[in-house]
## 1
Amino acid sequence: MFPLGFFVVMTSTSRQHALIIGGSIGGMTAAKALAPHFERITIVERDPLSDRAEPRRGVPQGVQPHGLLPRGRTELERMFPGLMKAVKAEGAFEFDGSAELARFTSRGWAPRHDNLGVSALACTRPLLETTMRRLLREQSPNVRIVDGTRFNGFTYTKLGDEVIVTGAKTDAKDPALQELSADLVIDATGRGTKSYKWMDEVGLPAPREVRVDAKCNYATRHYRAPAEAKHWWWRSLLIDSAPPDHARAVSILTVEGGRWIVTAIGTNGDYAPTDEAGWLAYIRSARAPIVADLLERAEPLTDVVQNRTTINIWRRMHEYEAKLSGLLLMGDGVCCFNPNYGQGLTSSALAARSLSERIAQHQGPLDYHFMAAHYDSQARWLEEGWSYSTTLDLRWPKAEGEKPAFYGFMRWCAGLLESVAIHDPILLRKLLPLLDFGANRLSIITPSFLGRFYFGLFRNIVAPRKLLAAAELDVFAKAPQRPTLAADVAVE
Ligand SMILES: Cc1cc2nc3c(=O)[nH]c(=O)nc-3n(C[C@H](O)[C@H](O)[C@H](O)COP(=O)(O)OP(=O)(O)OC[C@H]3O[C@@H](n4cnc5c(N)ncnc54)[C@H](O)[C@@H]3O)c2cc1C
């Protein structure tokens, strides 16, 4: 005889209530994915949330610069229709990610390509997040956000060797919110998720975890940009590091309100200090001193704030064999990246899209088979982004992590490709999907790709093209009249 609970739990295909823990990008994109499929969705967020676009405690990376990759932008716009227009109405703007980017690479100033067609969004992370939250409230009335409320643990039941999460406990003052039952619980509490510890407590194994740590640190200060900066030709300026010897990169990103986000990115354990004099000296010691010179014209608005949560960590839930039903991990809690490559927001958006497609086709219970199928399809595109960021991070001598087979040869090939592609917008455009989870490494190697590459290589040998040295680029030159690249994101 089976206990009654067996039938209640096992036969439940109900889609009445989904509970999402964490109201940041992972939580909100998950809510958008689930909204058409559940009667009610509750997001429980620890921080009190305001409509003002300002950093908050639970998202300390909010003060740091956030770039959005093209695919992430397309997906966020698809999920939150009108998002780009709404952030632009608050002062965010688009710029040409090649022509209006001054980038001092390890080879010299990168050539600017007018026709690359990469439109970048200049926007603070809090502005993006508060705008998404406003649109979520407006567009999905079945989503309720309970803020200022901490998740305190799952409620669950055991059925043989299967653990079924049935809801969560919170510290809400309202007794009705202290224990919430749900047909599906999403953990979107970010890279610090406690779910893996909880698995151990209930006797489940933890998933295998892979880490690559390039010992990278962000140290950021916000400035009011000098008034004349709006006439200069660039909107973002980046002095690259150059492994293995020069671990200091610095960047300026212009954002809404005429502000600059200025960041010292120290890798290989070479971290920028956070006191003003030390930080400025670090900025000046980058491979070109131009950012330090520019800061003499700008007005500091904040202290220096650092962030060291930059380790690439992949909890390989797609290999997980234990029977855990009712709970799905999303966002940074499954896979987080060194932010240097700007992949986190995009991977959250893509995971939500894949969840929405899967749940739309699925009639059965939200059991461990469903979760496994989701993690499995997610792993296929995560693999490419993971390989991109970790392969680059492993160039640093002090990086910790396992190098893939033939790493030295792969890096040598990649170096040759970079030396050719930097001059060729068509090759660059073909390479871009590798960064934003859009293509498989092998799939981009077509006869036309190889033809362009070999031609470029040959050209580099017979007529080498020298890039401008640090002092040769005029960063104070006025902007030519450029046509707008892309007005709004096209959603097919
Ligand atoms: C320095 C830095 C720079 C970055 N730059 C970029 C970039 O340029 N481009 C890019 O795409 N990505 C970037 N990222 C990554 C990006 O910030 C993350 O990928 C993204 O925020 C992931 O969102 P998430 O929702 O998974 O987690 P998080 O944003 O970490 O959010 C977790 C949420 O859960 C809440 N929470 C936690 N515990 C509880 C609890 N017990 N109860 C209730 N709520 C809880 C928190 O308050 C928070 O709101 C950067 C990250 C860092 C650290």
Note: The chain has two domains: 4-60+127-210+312-390, 67-81+90-123+217-307+404-492.
## 2
Amino acid sequence: MTLPNPLYTTDYGTAYVGDSLLLLDRLEPDSIDLVLTSPPFALQRKKTYGNVEQEDYVEWLLEFCQKVYRVLSPTGSFVLDLKVRLESYLTCIANRTNSKYVF
Ligand SMILES: C[S@@+](CC[C@H](N)C(=O)[O-])C[C@H]1O[C@@H](n2cnc3c(N)ncnc32)[C@H](O)[C@@H]1O
């Protein structure tokens, strides 16, 4: 698993630009302590960054969450910033993965 060239590096870490679904696959399992993200929303209006259709959103977010789960260390945290009205998506994913979420 190799990562692409970083955008920049500081004493605190390294930034990469790319499709997170692909970049997550290149990280070692159980290697990340914190994932903090504001992912695309399932909006009715199309965004220039290409958000998925509402009916496809749960599958898209579920795939993303599963990739995050693979790289998170056992004591790691996953902070997901979603609009409150998207709670139904989180409920659906929590039910399908037998997991819990906290507001
Ligand atoms: C809801 S916006 C987040 C905005 C950000 N919180 C801010 O305040 O600027 C979602 C962002 O995710 C990016 N994005 C969409 N699909 C992505 C993907 N597959 N991998 C990485 N970033 C993605 C979009 O370009 C957009 O900037």
Note: The CA atoms of residues 42 and 60 lie 10 Å apart.
